[in-house]
Write a structure and sequence with these properties.
It comes from Pandoraea aquatica. One of its GO terms (biological process) is regulation of cell shape. Keywords: Carboxypeptidase, Cell shape, Cell wall biogenesis/degradation, Hydrolase, Peptidoglycan synthesis, Protease, Signal. Pfam families: Peptidase_S11. GO terms for molecular function: serine-type D-Ala-D-Ala carboxypeptidase activity. It is a single chain. The chain folds into two domains: 71 residues, no CATH class; 254 residues, 3-Layer(aba) Sandwich (Beta-lactamase), CATH 3.40.710. The chain is rod-shaped. Strand 9 and strand 10 form a beta hairpin. It has 433 residues and is an alpha+beta fold. The longest helix is centred in the N-terminal third of the chain and has 85 residues. Strands 2-1-11-10-9 form a five-stranded antiparallel sheet, sandwiched between helices. Strands 3-6 form a two-stranded antiparallel sheet. It is built from 15 helices and eleven strands. Helix 8 crosses helix 11, helix 9 crosses helix 10 and helix 9 packs across helix 13.
């Protein structure tokens, strides 16, 4: 291609065509312009297309820039609406709380019932349901709302919220509370085979475990011995001597009170209740008017009088396994024993120095809970033989003012009976006021 144009553009043209240099220069310019025109058409088209794309992209970019602030405004608009709605709800709630206190002083007006047309019923089924609500339910709801408002108004006047009811057993219906350790697991850990706990003030049983099971009661019999002997009105300062007839021929138990020892009847009663002295109880039954058989008959008669149908006595000491009763009936005996001042005094005494005519003997209380002040009781008695196990009855004074009778029968060890007494005393002191 360059070979075709070369002759025209070559410097030797003036010599070939014998043309002046000025004409040749003009020809060159014209040719060069034609060439540029022919070659420049596609270039201009490309430049125009590029310019069109550039301008279109610019317009799109400007349109996106303009749309972004609009989107931000659209986002902020619901937020403003939400904040306005929450503010209106707060204002409505404050107005409602202010109006509730004012409405409590006035009578609760019956709520207005909106008229429901067929069109509204079709549009809103809830309106139709509201119409079907009976008037009594509406009135009850209004009354409940008025009562709630009155409670809130009273709490507002007192300057605080209403305090919850304390979990303490009341006098009307006392009970042992789980928060005080009275749980099924704790009850299973009791060592005694039969337990009966009754609140003396309200005659409410607080806990029963085999309470009607007939069992040997051992030296708990001495409470009935003291009751029957005091009913006979003996001379308390008169002396009483221990004889061979007072020896134990059933269990052949040992006693510190030797045959021939002479004590006052008061001291015999004292060590019989406090230290469970068997020979002292035997001497008291022998000294009864009519002798020992009359005394045993009087004990059984007293049991029937105290509504103890399952209770039987064969001797005054309790060494016989045929002296039987139940945990529930022994609570009645404890209640009756509390009516005798000497039984109250002697049974809870910690220790006593007793003159016997052959020297002095120091006796202590067999109930370690009472002796060491672990419980505050007004009447107590312990008892043990192999057939009965370890037994204990007490009239516990909860917080020194509230009497509760506790009877426990059949523990295998004296320590088990003591631990049961400690556990039950904690239940009572925590649950009752």
């Amino acid at each position: 291609m360059s070979a075709l144009w070369y002759p025209l553009l070559s410097p030797s043209l003036p010599r070939l065509y014998r043309m002046p240099p000025r004409a040749i220069a003009i020809a060159r310019l014209v040719l060069f312009g034609v060439i540029l025109l022919i070659a420049g058409l596609p270039v201009s088209d490309a430049l125009a297309a590029n310019a069109h794309q550039t301008s279109t992209g610019k317009r799109r970019h400007d349109a996106v820039k303009k749309k972004k602030p609009v989107a931000k405004k659209a986002k902020t608009a619901p937020q403003r609406k939400a904040t306005a709605a929450s503010a209106s709800r707060k204002r409505t709630a404050t107005h409602a709380t202010k109006g509730r206190t004012s409405r409590t002083s006035k009578k609760a007006a019956p709520p207005r019932r909106a008229k429901v047309t067929k069109s509204t019923a079709k549009r809103s089924p809830t309106v139709a349901r509201r119409k079907a609500v009976p008037k009594a339910a509406v009135a009850a709801g209004a009354a409940a709302g008025a009562a709630a408002g009155a409670t809130a108004a009273a709490a507002a006047k007192s300057g605080g919220t209403a305090a919850p009811s304390a979990q303490v057993s009341t006098d009307a219906q006392p009970r042992l509370l789980a928060r005080c350790g009275f749980t099924p697991a704790s009850r299973k850990r009791l060592f005694s085979k039969a337990v009966y706990i009754v609140d003396e003030k309200t005659h409410t049983p607080l806990f029963t475990l085999n309470a009607d099971q007939v069992r040997p009661i051992a030296s708990l019999s001495k409470l009935m011995t003291a009751v029957v002997w005091l009913d006979s009105g003996p001379a308390m300062r008169a002396p009483l001597t221990v004889t061979n007839a007072d020896l134990d021929t059933l269990k052949f138990t040992h006693s510190r009170l030797a045959v021939g020892s002479t004590l006052s009847r008061a001291n015999m009663l004292h060590i019989s209740l406090m230290a469970s002295e068997n020979r002292a109880a035997a001497a008291l039954s022998r000294d009864y008017p009519g002798g020992r058989p009359a005394f045993i008959s009087a004990m059984n008669a007293k049991a029937r009088l105290l509504n103890m149908p399952n209770t039987r006595f064969e001797n005054s000491t309790g060494l016989s396994p045929r002296n039987v009763s139940t945990a529930r009936e022994l609570a009645r005996l404890v209640r009756a024993s509390n009516g005798y001042p000497l039984i109250r005094r002697y049974s809870i005494d910690h220790q006593q120095l007793v003159p016997t005519g052959k020297g002095q003997l120091q006796y202590v209380n067999t109930n370690r809970l009472v002796r060491y002040g672990k419980v505050h009781a007004s009447v107590q008695k312990t008892g043990f033989i192999n057939e009965s196990g370890h037994n204990m009855v007490m009239r516990v004074m909860v917080h020194k003012t509230r009497p509760v009778i506790v009877t426990m029968l059949g523990s295998d060890t004296p320590e088990g009976s003591r631990l049961d007494g400690v556990r039950i005393a904690h239940w009572l002191s925590c649950s009752l006021r």
